[in-house]
Design goal:
26% of the residues lie in helices and 30% in strands. The protein is α+β, with helices and mostly antiparallel strands and 157 residues long. It has one domain: STM4215-like (2-Layer Sandwich). It starts with a helix and ends with a strand.
């Protein structure tokens, strides 16, 4: 597995972990929050299906654009941007069959759960909230926010 997919899976593991007292899990009224990566295959179909039934989904992305720490050396070490896109169909999500967890609650949860956490349990690889922690991407037809974080990442072999 490549380092980007591995990082995405570790982030999902952290978001779905139980028993983290400093950032407790949000409790949906119905179903569960689905967290997926961009590397699942038919991404558009999965998003459409989940948002259509539960009303909300979280997608973990590594969109690129990070900066090298020191050019010309090995291993390749850089700041890897992570974006967690929260897509909410407000009408479906807040009705009786939805999770009733608003998108902005998930935005805050992601920041609290991931800021200063390390996927390798080492201080050097901890994730930090970006200078612009979140952005509203769209308000219609879906309410979409991107939570923005940065991770220290190295590619060795």
């Amino acid at each position: 597995m490549n380092v980007f997919s591995s990082l995405q899976q570790k982030v999902i593991g952290r978001l779905t972990a139980t028993g983290i007292t400093e950032a407790p899990s949000l409790v949906p009224a119905n179903g569960q929050i689905n967290w997926i990566t961009e590397d699942i295959g038919d991404l558009a179909n999965m998003i459409t299906k989940t948002v259509g039934t539960l009303g909300i989904i979280g997608i973990v992305l590594t969109p690129g654009g990070g900066k090298l720490f020191r050019p010309g050396i090995f291993p390749i070490s850089f700041v890897c941007p992570i974006e967690i896109q929260i897509q909410e169909n407000v009408i479906v999500n807040r009705r009786d069959g939805g999770t009733k967890i608003p998108a902005l609650d998930l935005v805050q949860f992601c920041m609290l759960r991931l800021h200063l956490w390390s996927p390798t349990s080492q201080r050097i690889t901890r994730i930090e909230v970006d200078e612009t922690p979140y952005l509203m991407v769209s308000e219609h037809p879906l309410l979409v926010y991107n939570v923005r974080l940065n991770a220290q990442l190295s590619i060795t072999h």
